[in-house]
Amino acid sequence: MSEKKWLTLSELEMTMRDPYPGWREIRERGPVDRIEMPGFPPQVRVFRRDDAEAVLKDEETFSARINQESMGPYMGTVLLGKDGKEHTVYRNLVSHAFRRSALERWEEELVSPTIHELLDAIAPRGHADLVPEVTSRYPVKVITGLMGVSIDDVDRFASWAEDVSGGPLNPERGLASSKAMKEYLTPIVEDRKQNPRDDLISDIVTAEIDGERLDDDHIFGFLRLLMPAGAETTYRVLGNTLLALLQNPAALERVRSDRSLVSRAIEETLRWQTSVTLVTRVAKRDTEIAGCPVHAGSVVSMMVGSANHDEHHFDRSDEWDLDRPPEPTHLSFGWGRHLCLGIHLARLELRVGVNAVLDRLPGLRLDPSKPAPEIRGHAFRGPNSLPVLFEPS
Ligand code: HEM
Predict the structure, then answer these.
(1) Cβ count within 10 A of residue 285
(2) Cβ burial 38-61 (10 Å sphere, 16+ → b, else e)
(3) Which of 20, 207, 233, 261 has its CA 20 to 30 A from that of 377?
(4) Taking the mean position of all CA atoms in its chain, how far away is CA 48?
Protein backbone atom coordinates (compact mmCIF):
# COMPACT_ATOMS: atom_id res chain seq x y z
CA MET A 1 0.00 0.00 0.00
CA SER A 2 1.44 3.41 -0.89
CA GLU A 3 1.15 6.10 1.78
CA LYS A 4 1.05 9.84 1.36
CA LYS A 5 0.28 12.82 3.56
CA TRP A 6 -1.88 15.02 1.34
CA LEU A 7 -1.98 16.49 -2.15
CA THR A 8 0.06 19.63 -2.88
CA LEU A 9 -1.74 22.49 -4.64
CA SER A 10 -0.10 21.72 -7.98
CA GLU A 11 -1.02 18.04 -7.65
CA LEU A 12 -4.58 19.11 -6.91
CA GLU A 13 -4.63 21.32 -10.03
CA MET A 14 -3.32 18.38 -12.10
CA THR A 15 -6.00 16.04 -10.75
CA MET A 16 -8.69 18.64 -11.50
CA ARG A 17 -7.53 18.68 -15.13
CA ASP A 18 -6.80 15.03 -15.67
CA PRO A 19 -6.58 12.63 -12.73
CA TYR A 20 -6.40 9.57 -14.97
CA PRO A 21 -2.59 9.38 -15.53
CA GLY A 22 -2.01 9.72 -11.77
CA TRP A 23 -4.59 7.03 -11.03
CA ARG A 24 -2.92 4.75 -13.58
CA GLU A 25 0.42 5.15 -11.78
CA ILE A 26 -1.19 4.29 -8.46
CA ARG A 27 -2.91 1.22 -9.99
CA GLU A 28 0.45 0.05 -11.28
CA ARG A 29 2.05 0.44 -7.82
CA GLY A 30 -0.67 -1.37 -5.87
CA PRO A 31 -4.39 -1.80 -5.34
CA VAL A 32 -4.93 0.96 -2.77
CA ASP A 33 -3.26 4.02 -1.28
CA ARG A 34 -3.68 5.67 2.08
CA ILE A 35 -3.97 9.37 2.86
CA GLU A 36 -3.29 10.60 6.40
CA MET A 37 -4.39 14.03 7.61
CA PRO A 38 -4.02 15.14 11.23
CA GLY A 39 -7.38 15.18 13.00
CA PHE A 40 -9.13 13.01 10.38
CA PRO A 41 -9.63 9.24 10.17
CA PRO A 42 -7.25 7.51 7.74
CA GLN A 43 -8.52 7.41 4.18
CA VAL A 44 -7.96 4.36 2.00
CA ARG A 45 -8.55 4.79 -1.73
CA VAL A 46 -9.36 1.73 -3.87
CA PHE A 47 -8.25 2.00 -7.50
CA ARG A 48 -8.94 -1.31 -9.23
CA ARG A 49 -12.31 -2.42 -10.57
CA ASP A 50 -12.59 -5.85 -8.88
CA ASP A 51 -11.57 -4.47 -5.47
CA ALA A 52 -14.02 -1.56 -5.74
CA GLU A 53 -16.84 -3.93 -6.67
CA ALA A 54 -15.91 -6.29 -3.81
CA VAL A 55 -16.03 -3.48 -1.22
CA LEU A 56 -19.38 -2.21 -2.52
CA LYS A 57 -20.81 -5.74 -2.25
CA ASP A 58 -19.46 -6.40 1.26
CA GLU A 59 -22.02 -4.74 3.49
CA GLU A 60 -20.96 -6.76 6.51
CA THR A 61 -17.63 -4.97 6.58
CA PHE A 62 -18.25 -1.61 4.96
CA SER A 63 -21.01 0.80 5.96
CA ALA A 64 -22.62 3.65 4.04
CA ARG A 65 -23.43 5.55 7.27
CA ILE A 66 -20.57 7.94 6.54
CA ASN A 67 -22.88 9.46 3.89
CA GLN A 68 -25.48 10.11 6.57
CA GLU A 69 -22.85 11.77 8.75
CA SER A 70 -21.77 14.15 5.99
CA MET A 71 -25.16 14.84 4.37
CA GLY A 72 -27.61 14.24 7.24
CA PRO A 73 -27.25 17.61 8.99
CA TYR A 74 -28.34 19.38 5.79
CA MET A 75 -30.57 16.85 4.07
CA GLY A 76 -32.22 14.83 6.87
CA THR A 77 -32.35 11.04 6.70
CA VAL A 78 -30.78 10.08 3.37
CA LEU A 79 -31.14 6.80 1.50
CA LEU A 80 -27.44 6.87 0.63
CA GLY A 81 -26.52 6.72 4.30
CA LYS A 82 -28.54 3.65 5.32
CA ASP A 83 -27.37 0.07 5.69
CA GLY A 84 -29.13 -3.31 5.73
CA LYS A 85 -32.84 -3.63 6.45
CA GLU A 86 -33.34 0.09 7.08
CA HIS A 87 -32.05 0.75 3.59
CA THR A 88 -34.21 -2.00 2.05
CA VAL A 89 -37.40 -0.60 3.60
CA TYR A 90 -36.58 3.01 2.65
CA ARG A 91 -35.53 2.08 -0.91
CA ASN A 92 -38.58 -0.12 -1.52
CA LEU A 93 -40.85 2.74 -0.45
CA VAL A 94 -39.28 5.30 -2.83
CA SER A 95 -38.38 3.08 -5.78
CA HIS A 96 -41.98 2.60 -6.93
CA ALA A 97 -41.95 6.28 -7.96
CA PHE A 98 -39.24 5.43 -10.55
CA ARG A 99 -41.15 2.53 -12.18
CA ARG A 100 -41.11 2.05 -15.96
CA SER A 101 -44.60 3.46 -16.58
CA ALA A 102 -43.69 6.65 -14.67
CA LEU A 103 -40.52 7.03 -16.75
CA GLU A 104 -42.49 6.67 -19.98
CA ARG A 105 -44.84 9.41 -18.87
CA TRP A 106 -41.98 11.67 -17.74
CA GLU A 107 -40.29 11.25 -21.13
CA GLU A 108 -43.32 12.47 -22.98
CA GLU A 109 -44.57 15.12 -20.58
CA LEU A 110 -41.39 16.55 -19.10
CA VAL A 111 -38.01 15.30 -20.34
CA SER A 112 -38.52 15.77 -24.07
CA PRO A 113 -40.39 19.12 -23.82
CA THR A 114 -37.67 20.44 -21.47
CA ILE A 115 -34.72 19.74 -23.79
CA HIS A 116 -36.62 21.00 -26.84
CA GLU A 117 -37.56 24.23 -25.08
CA LEU A 118 -33.89 24.83 -24.24
CA LEU A 119 -32.86 24.07 -27.82
CA ASP A 120 -35.64 26.33 -29.23
CA ALA A 121 -33.79 29.27 -27.68
CA ILE A 122 -30.50 28.58 -29.48
CA ALA A 123 -31.45 26.74 -32.70
CA PRO A 124 -32.10 29.89 -34.83
CA ARG A 125 -28.78 31.43 -33.78
CA GLY A 126 -26.20 29.06 -35.31
CA HIS A 127 -23.86 29.27 -32.33
CA ALA A 128 -24.13 28.64 -28.58
CA ASP A 129 -22.30 27.57 -25.48
CA LEU A 130 -24.09 24.29 -24.76
CA VAL A 131 -23.14 24.03 -21.07
CA PRO A 132 -24.57 27.26 -19.62
CA GLU A 133 -27.39 27.44 -22.16
CA VAL A 134 -28.55 23.84 -22.40
CA THR A 135 -26.89 20.97 -20.53
CA SER A 136 -26.56 22.55 -17.08
CA ARG A 137 -30.20 23.68 -17.15
CA TYR A 138 -31.79 20.49 -18.45
CA PRO A 139 -31.67 17.94 -15.58
CA VAL A 140 -32.31 20.71 -13.03
CA LYS A 141 -35.53 21.56 -14.86
CA VAL A 142 -36.47 17.89 -15.09
CA ILE A 143 -36.01 17.25 -11.36
CA THR A 144 -37.71 20.45 -10.24
CA GLY A 145 -40.51 19.61 -12.68
CA LEU A 146 -40.85 16.16 -11.08
CA MET A 147 -41.08 17.77 -7.64
CA GLY A 148 -43.76 20.26 -8.64
CA VAL A 149 -41.52 23.35 -8.29
CA SER A 150 -42.98 26.22 -10.32
CA ILE A 151 -41.02 27.32 -13.43
CA ASP A 152 -40.42 30.76 -11.88
CA ASP A 153 -38.77 29.23 -8.81
CA VAL A 154 -36.36 26.83 -10.56
CA ASP A 155 -33.27 29.03 -10.13
CA ARG A 156 -34.02 29.76 -6.47
CA PHE A 157 -34.62 26.07 -5.76
CA ALA A 158 -31.45 25.04 -7.62
CA SER A 159 -29.39 27.48 -5.59
CA TRP A 160 -30.78 26.08 -2.31
CA ALA A 161 -29.89 22.58 -3.51
CA GLU A 162 -26.36 23.73 -4.25
CA ASP A 163 -26.01 25.24 -0.75
CA VAL A 164 -27.40 22.04 0.80
CA SER A 165 -24.79 19.89 -0.98
CA GLY A 166 -22.08 22.38 -0.03
CA GLY A 167 -23.27 22.30 3.61
CA PRO A 168 -20.11 20.65 4.99
CA LEU A 169 -18.07 23.58 3.57
CA ASN A 170 -20.48 26.36 4.55
CA PRO A 171 -22.75 25.03 7.33
CA GLU A 172 -24.61 28.30 7.93
CA ARG A 173 -25.73 28.60 4.31
CA GLY A 174 -26.36 24.87 4.06
CA LEU A 175 -28.72 24.91 7.05
CA ALA A 176 -30.55 28.07 5.93
CA SER A 177 -31.12 26.64 2.44
CA SER A 178 -32.16 23.26 3.85
CA LYS A 179 -34.84 25.07 5.89
CA ALA A 180 -35.93 27.14 2.88
CA MET A 181 -36.23 24.02 0.74
CA LYS A 182 -38.38 22.28 3.34
CA GLU A 183 -40.62 25.35 3.72
CA TYR A 184 -41.06 25.49 -0.06
CA LEU A 185 -41.87 21.78 -0.39
CA THR A 186 -44.11 21.48 2.69
CA PRO A 187 -47.33 22.78 1.06
CA ILE A 188 -46.74 20.50 -1.95
CA VAL A 189 -46.12 17.47 0.28
CA GLU A 190 -49.18 18.24 2.46
CA ASP A 191 -51.37 18.75 -0.60
CA ARG A 192 -50.30 15.41 -2.12
CA LYS A 193 -50.95 13.64 1.19
CA GLN A 194 -54.55 14.91 1.09
CA ASN A 195 -55.09 14.82 -2.69
CA PRO A 196 -52.68 12.34 -4.26
CA ARG A 197 -52.16 12.71 -8.01
CA ASP A 198 -50.18 10.89 -10.64
CA ASP A 199 -46.83 12.48 -9.75
CA LEU A 200 -43.54 11.75 -7.97
CA ILE A 201 -44.33 13.40 -4.63
CA SER A 202 -47.73 11.67 -4.42
CA ASP A 203 -45.99 8.33 -5.03
CA ILE A 204 -43.47 9.03 -2.28
CA VAL A 205 -45.92 10.26 0.36
CA THR A 206 -48.52 7.55 -0.24
CA ALA A 207 -46.14 4.59 -0.68
CA GLU A 208 -46.99 1.84 1.80
CA ILE A 209 -45.49 -1.63 2.23
CA ASP A 210 -46.64 -3.96 5.03
CA GLY A 211 -48.30 -1.02 6.75
CA GLU A 212 -45.08 1.04 6.71
CA ARG A 213 -44.99 4.56 5.27
CA LEU A 214 -42.25 7.17 5.14
CA ASP A 215 -42.32 9.79 7.88
CA ASP A 216 -41.60 13.45 7.10
CA ASP A 217 -37.92 13.15 7.99
CA HIS A 218 -37.49 10.42 5.34
CA ILE A 219 -39.74 12.21 2.82
CA PHE A 220 -37.80 15.48 3.04
CA GLY A 221 -34.47 13.63 3.31
CA PHE A 222 -35.27 11.93 0.03
CA LEU A 223 -36.52 15.05 -1.73
CA ARG A 224 -33.50 17.11 -0.61
CA LEU A 225 -31.17 14.41 -1.98
CA LEU A 226 -32.75 14.30 -5.44
CA MET A 227 -31.25 17.49 -6.89
CA PRO A 228 -27.67 16.87 -5.75
CA ALA A 229 -27.95 13.20 -6.77
CA GLY A 230 -29.61 13.74 -10.11
CA ALA A 231 -28.76 17.14 -11.58
CA GLU A 232 -25.01 17.77 -11.72
CA THR A 233 -24.30 14.05 -12.13
CA THR A 234 -26.41 13.89 -15.28
CA TYR A 235 -25.62 17.23 -16.87
CA ARG A 236 -21.90 16.63 -16.57
CA VAL A 237 -22.15 13.23 -18.29
CA LEU A 238 -24.23 14.86 -21.05
CA GLY A 239 -21.47 17.46 -21.52
CA ASN A 240 -18.83 14.72 -21.57
CA THR A 241 -20.80 12.71 -24.16
CA LEU A 242 -21.26 15.71 -26.44
CA LEU A 243 -17.59 16.60 -26.08
CA ALA A 244 -16.53 13.01 -26.94
CA LEU A 245 -18.67 13.17 -30.09
CA LEU A 246 -17.46 16.66 -31.05
CA GLN A 247 -13.85 15.54 -30.66
CA ASN A 248 -14.52 12.46 -32.83
CA PRO A 249 -16.33 13.82 -35.91
CA ALA A 250 -16.40 10.42 -37.65
CA ALA A 251 -18.14 8.88 -34.63
CA LEU A 252 -20.49 11.88 -34.48
CA GLU A 253 -21.55 11.21 -38.09
CA ARG A 254 -22.05 7.50 -37.39
CA VAL A 255 -24.21 8.25 -34.37
CA ARG A 256 -26.15 10.95 -36.23
CA SER A 257 -27.10 8.52 -39.00
CA ASP A 258 -27.59 5.43 -36.79
CA ARG A 259 -29.36 6.42 -33.59
CA SER A 260 -29.10 2.92 -32.16
CA LEU A 261 -25.51 4.00 -31.38
CA VAL A 262 -26.60 6.81 -29.04
CA SER A 263 -26.85 4.53 -26.01
CA ARG A 264 -23.44 3.02 -26.81
CA ALA A 265 -21.89 6.51 -26.96
CA ILE A 266 -23.45 7.30 -23.59
CA GLU A 267 -22.29 4.09 -21.87
CA GLU A 268 -18.77 4.48 -23.24
CA THR A 269 -18.70 8.05 -21.97
CA LEU A 270 -19.89 6.93 -18.55
CA ARG A 271 -16.91 4.58 -18.51
CA TRP A 272 -14.39 6.98 -20.06
CA GLN A 273 -15.27 10.13 -18.13
CA THR A 274 -17.92 9.62 -15.49
CA SER A 275 -19.22 12.61 -13.58
CA VAL A 276 -18.99 11.03 -10.10
CA THR A 277 -15.44 9.78 -9.67
CA LEU A 278 -15.66 8.30 -6.17
CA VAL A 279 -18.08 6.75 -3.68
CA THR A 280 -17.37 6.35 -0.01
CA ARG A 281 -17.89 3.83 2.80
CA VAL A 282 -16.44 3.35 6.29
CA ALA A 283 -14.80 0.15 7.56
CA LYS A 284 -16.85 -1.32 10.43
CA ARG A 285 -14.01 -3.55 11.64
CA ASP A 286 -10.33 -4.24 11.02
CA THR A 287 -10.12 -5.89 7.62
CA GLU A 288 -8.11 -5.95 4.43
CA ILE A 289 -8.62 -4.96 0.83
CA ALA A 290 -6.65 -6.93 -1.76
CA GLY A 291 -4.30 -8.02 1.03
CA CYS A 292 -3.74 -4.47 2.38
CA PRO A 293 -4.72 -3.95 6.03
CA VAL A 294 -7.53 -1.49 6.69
CA HIS A 295 -8.35 -0.42 10.25
CA ALA A 296 -11.86 -0.09 11.65
CA GLY A 297 -13.08 3.48 11.18
CA SER A 298 -11.04 4.06 8.01
CA VAL A 299 -12.82 6.00 5.31
CA VAL A 300 -12.73 3.86 2.16
CA SER A 301 -13.18 5.63 -1.18
CA MET A 302 -13.87 3.58 -4.27
CA MET A 303 -12.20 5.50 -7.07
CA VAL A 304 -14.86 4.71 -9.63
CA GLY A 305 -13.18 6.78 -12.36
CA SER A 306 -9.98 4.78 -11.89
CA ALA A 307 -11.86 1.45 -11.72
CA ASN A 308 -13.47 2.28 -15.08
CA HIS A 309 -9.97 2.61 -16.61
CA ASP A 310 -8.56 -0.56 -15.04
CA GLU A 311 -6.39 -2.04 -17.80
CA HIS A 312 -7.13 -5.57 -16.57
CA HIS A 313 -10.66 -5.11 -17.83
CA PHE A 314 -10.54 -2.37 -20.44
CA ASP A 315 -8.20 -2.40 -23.39
CA ARG A 316 -6.66 1.04 -24.27
CA SER A 317 -8.70 2.20 -21.32
CA ASP A 318 -7.92 5.93 -21.63
CA GLU A 319 -9.43 6.07 -25.13
CA TRP A 320 -13.09 6.80 -25.89
CA ASP A 321 -14.12 4.02 -28.29
CA LEU A 322 -17.60 3.83 -29.74
CA ASP A 323 -16.99 0.17 -30.66
CA ARG A 324 -15.92 -0.98 -27.21
CA PRO A 325 -17.79 -4.15 -26.15
CA PRO A 326 -20.50 -3.50 -23.52
CA GLU A 327 -18.98 -6.01 -21.06
CA PRO A 328 -17.48 -5.65 -18.56
CA THR A 329 -19.63 -2.79 -17.38
CA HIS A 330 -18.41 0.42 -15.79
CA LEU A 331 -19.07 1.21 -12.12
CA SER A 332 -20.35 4.74 -12.75
CA PHE A 333 -23.75 4.10 -11.19
CA GLY A 334 -22.16 2.29 -8.23
CA TRP A 335 -22.74 -1.38 -7.43
CA GLY A 336 -24.85 -3.48 -5.08
CA ARG A 337 -27.35 -2.16 -2.57
CA HIS A 338 -26.88 1.55 -3.33
CA LEU A 339 -26.82 1.18 -7.13
CA CYS A 340 -28.09 4.51 -8.45
CA LEU A 341 -31.84 4.73 -8.02
CA GLY A 342 -32.03 7.25 -10.85
CA ILE A 343 -30.14 5.00 -13.31
CA HIS A 344 -33.06 4.67 -15.74
CA LEU A 345 -34.02 8.33 -15.49
CA ALA A 346 -30.39 9.37 -16.08
CA ARG A 347 -30.09 7.11 -19.13
CA LEU A 348 -33.42 8.40 -20.41
CA GLU A 349 -32.39 12.06 -20.02
CA LEU A 350 -29.04 11.37 -21.69
CA ARG A 351 -30.58 9.48 -24.62
CA VAL A 352 -33.32 12.06 -25.18
CA GLY A 353 -30.79 14.88 -24.73
CA VAL A 354 -28.22 13.57 -27.24
CA ASN A 355 -30.93 12.74 -29.81
CA ALA A 356 -32.50 16.18 -29.48
CA VAL A 357 -29.14 17.94 -29.90
CA LEU A 358 -28.45 15.88 -33.06
CA ASP A 359 -31.95 16.53 -34.44
CA ARG A 360 -32.07 20.22 -33.73
CA LEU A 361 -28.49 21.33 -34.41
CA PRO A 362 -27.45 20.14 -37.89
CA GLY A 363 -23.78 20.47 -38.77
CA LEU A 364 -22.84 20.59 -35.07
CA ARG A 365 -19.11 21.24 -34.53
CA LEU A 366 -16.79 22.84 -31.99
CA ASP A 367 -16.33 26.60 -32.47
CA PRO A 368 -12.65 26.88 -33.53
CA SER A 369 -12.51 30.55 -32.50
CA LYS A 370 -13.08 29.65 -28.83
CA PRO A 371 -10.71 27.90 -26.36
CA ALA A 372 -10.90 24.11 -26.69
CA PRO A 373 -13.26 22.73 -24.02
CA GLU A 374 -11.78 20.68 -21.18
CA ILE A 375 -13.29 18.16 -18.81
CA ARG A 376 -12.36 19.33 -15.32
CA GLY A 377 -13.19 18.64 -11.69
CA HIS A 378 -12.35 16.08 -9.04
CA ALA A 379 -15.43 14.56 -7.41
CA PHE A 380 -17.71 15.86 -10.21
CA ARG A 381 -16.18 16.06 -13.70
CA GLY A 382 -17.35 17.71 -16.90
CA PRO A 383 -16.68 20.67 -19.20
CA ASN A 384 -17.82 24.10 -17.99
CA SER A 385 -18.13 25.34 -21.53
CA LEU A 386 -18.92 23.74 -24.94
CA PRO A 387 -18.83 26.49 -27.57
CA VAL A 388 -20.33 25.14 -30.82
CA LEU A 389 -21.43 26.20 -34.31
CA PHE A 390 -24.29 24.65 -36.30
CA GLU A 391 -26.67 25.47 -39.17
CA PRO A 392 -29.37 27.83 -37.88
CA SER A 393 -32.87 26.38 -38.12
C1 HEM B 1 -25.27 10.13 -14.99
C2 HEM B 1 -25.94 10.45 -13.91
C3 HEM B 1 -25.76 9.79 -12.58
C4 HEM B 1 -24.66 9.20 -12.03
C5 HEM B 1 -23.27 9.05 -12.65
C6 HEM B 1 -25.05 8.71 -10.72
C7 HEM B 1 -24.19 8.02 -9.86
C8 HEM B 1 -24.61 7.43 -8.68
C9 HEM B 1 -23.77 6.60 -7.85
C10 HEM B 1 -22.31 6.27 -8.14
C11 HEM B 1 -24.51 6.19 -6.80
C12 HEM B 1 -24.08 5.24 -5.68
C13 HEM B 1 -23.45 6.00 -4.53
C14 HEM B 1 -22.91 5.09 -3.46
O15 HEM B 1 -22.88 3.87 -3.60
O16 HEM B 1 -22.49 5.65 -2.42
C17 HEM B 1 -25.83 6.79 -6.93
C18 HEM B 1 -26.87 6.62 -6.03
C19 HEM B 1 -28.06 7.32 -6.12
N20 HEM B 1 -28.51 8.09 -7.18
FE21 HEM B 1 -27.48 8.46 -8.90
N22 HEM B 1 -26.36 9.04 -10.49
C23 HEM B 1 -26.84 9.69 -11.60
C24 HEM B 1 -28.12 10.15 -11.79
C25 HEM B 1 -29.13 10.11 -10.86
C26 HEM B 1 -30.46 10.64 -11.03
C27 HEM B 1 -30.99 11.28 -12.30
C28 HEM B 1 -31.14 10.46 -9.85
C29 HEM B 1 -32.55 10.82 -9.47
C30 HEM B 1 -33.16 11.89 -9.85
C31 HEM B 1 -30.23 9.78 -8.94
C32 HEM B 1 -30.54 9.40 -7.66
C33 HEM B 1 -29.75 8.58 -6.88
C34 HEM B 1 -30.15 8.12 -5.56
C35 HEM B 1 -31.45 8.45 -4.84
C36 HEM B 1 -29.10 7.32 -5.11
C37 HEM B 1 -29.04 6.59 -3.77
C38 HEM B 1 -29.42 5.12 -3.95
C39 HEM B 1 -29.35 4.34 -2.67
O40 HEM B 1 -28.68 4.77 -1.72
O41 HEM B 1 -29.97 3.28 -2.61
N42 HEM B 1 -29.03 9.59 -9.59
N43 HEM B 1 -25.87 7.52 -8.11
Answers:
(1) 11
(2) eeeebbbbbbbbebbbbbbeebeb
(3) 261
(4) 20
Tell me: the pLDDT tens digits for 195-210?
999 899 999 999 999 8
Each residue's pLDDT tens digit, 321-330: 999 999 999 9
- Determine the atom of ligand 1 nearest the C-alpha atom of 339: 12
Which has the closest alpha carbon to 324: 273, 268, 269, 272? 268
Please indicate, yes or no, whether the overall pTM of this predicted structure exceeds 0.70. Answer: yes
**CATH number, position 224:** 1.10.630.10
Query: Ligand 1 centre and the CA of 253: distance in Å?
Result: 31
Number of domains the chain is built from: 1
Q: Which atom of ligand 1 is nearest to the CA of 143?
A: 30
77 in ligand 1 pocket by Cβ < 6 Å?
no
Name which residue sits closest to atom 9 of ligand 1, judged by CA. 333
Domain residue limits at 356? 2-389
